Amino acid sequence: MMNKVELISSLIKDRRSFYPHEYIEGEIPNEHIDLILENANWAPNHGLTEPWRFFVFEKEGLQALSEAQGNIYKDNTSEEEFDQARYEKLVKLPLQSSHVIAIIMKRGSNPKIPKVEEIEAVACAVQNMALTVTALGYGGYWSTGGMVKFKESKEFFGLGEEDEFLGLFYMGKIPRENKIGKRKEIKEKVTWVR
Ligand SMILES: Cc1cc2nc3c(=O)[nH]c(=O)nc-3n(C[C@H](O)[C@H](O)[C@H](O)COP(=O)(O)O)c2cc1C
Question: Which architecture characterizes domain 4-189 according to CATH?
Answer without folding.
Answer: 3-Layer(aba) Sandwich (3.40)
